[in-house]
Amino acid sequence: MVDVLTWTIERRMRLTERAELLRKELAEIDVELGRLEAAEVVFGQWAEATDGGRRPSGIVEPEPEPEPEPEPERVVVVTPGAAGMRLVPDREEGMGVEVLTPEYRRIMEIVTAAAGPVMAKDVALALGRENTPGKVEPVRGQLRKLSGRGWLARNGSGRYLPC
Length: 163
Fold this sequence. Notes:
The protein is mainly alpha-helical. Helix content is 52%, strand content 4%.
């Protein structure tokens, strides 16, 4: 007798779970049906307006703009960071720090002048910044960028030294 009751309870629980899954699936199908019905209405309106695509839709094409007169030549000074130019270029053989922006040049001077590997907080302090996360994190990002582009070497403990 107990076996029948246990079986009935287990069966009811399985069927309840399955019913819930089917309800969710039905709700998803209803949403998709609504979208398809809306698409049919829009397409039907377009087909009526264009006679099934055989007539122009009445959408006016814009007229081409007249070509502008050529401007006189201008001298453009390109600085790092302009028009997608990298602030820190990849280091190549024979390249000096003069290609870096003044701030990155100053960071390179600090790291080069240090007696050994330096941490981001040391560089931040040498730049005259406070020893707070808000002031040290940007310097850490700059050190990573210099390291990633071959200007500095980073050891495992997050210290940097010149290459």
